[in-house]
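PcfJ-like protein, Parapedobacter indicus. Tokens?
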Amino acid sequence: MRFFKLSQENTGLSEEEKAWAIDKCLKHIAYQTKSRTSCLDCGHEWPNIGTVNTCVCPKCNTKLKIEVTRKKKMEQREFVAHLDVVEGFQFVRLFELKSFHRSGKKADISVREVIHQFFTPDGIVEIVAKLHHLHWNLDSFGYEFGIRDKHQFHQKYDPDPINVLPGPNCLPIFKRNGFKGKLHGLTAFELFTAITHDPRAETLLKARQYKLLLIKAASTRRSMVDRYWDSIKICIRNKYKVKDALMWLDYMDLLKYFRKDLRNPKFVCPSNLKREHDRLVKKKRVEERRREVEAMRRYMEEEQAAYEKAKQAFFGIQFKAGHISVRVLEHVREFMEEGDIHKHCLFANKYFRKHDSLVMSATFKGNPIETIEISLSEMKVIQSRGLRNNPSEHHMKIVNLVNRNMNKIRDRRQKLDKTA
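Tokens:
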């Protein structure tokens, strides 16, 4: 009851605070068509003045970002935080801003107080809030304020505020550890607990490395900040601000992969991060491709030895009829080429290992059109398939050509059996 009473004693915003929240937290847009521009704040419309990115509404004097579109409606939803200290607790009041805009109409904007958080540097103490209905098709606050389940804090009662109302008040320890009024993409609880319990988060905040702070305080990849902390200290020492933390951390992984000095400002503080990142990504891909090719070469050499031992007696067999030619595949590499050309599983399913199968390639005017599998025990065509396992237009001619010459394969098989 204590926190509920404190919650009820500290509510509401002044008109000045509401105006500030609406001005700073919501987008101010003008929809533009071929002939007219419409302010989505006040609804005023006027003839186009040309192609520009921004303008000022002649009626409400709001600076607007222009969007060229045929849309008529827009909805927005944001949260803004009010920070205060009440009886030794950090008291965070969260307000939901919702707006509905329609061309030619004044925007319908509401500011509702929805969540009160009480916490200390050691953790959340109590939540007083409107009931948060959160489902796959519903996200809204309803009913009256009440004590809510702390176990649902992060899931339902700690939304990211886009801004903090002017004049925030916080516990002295948070001020000492670098808080100056902005949350930098974090919730108040995430930021305050991070800079209290993690010296590295405190360092990042004081060094204005806000993008890295966001990763350290609220990302599943926070361990990467610890992994490259020495490199981060080099950035701080050289006044290099990391503007894209995820790309920079990926770049550190690439530097480590290529065994570069991770304490050298030349590498860890690139003037053009994207260019250097993309260059190393390309270099790594080339190297990985080279290794893959080398591994495939060794694999084929090993498989080729076994394939030659099993099927060498059939090498050289070839049939022709007009423009159609059929021959035995003599190298494992040819299985891969056939599979790539026809987009079937000849190589992937390792047909070169099948003891009872003899695989042949059919071409028409020198172009591969089908792959044939013959059973050596039954001396018949099991299958003959072209692109994506479909028969080609010459399918029956190919099968008949193989069947007419099956005796040549049978003779080779008999000779092989005699020498075995």
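The CA atoms of residues 167 and 181 lie 8 Å apart.
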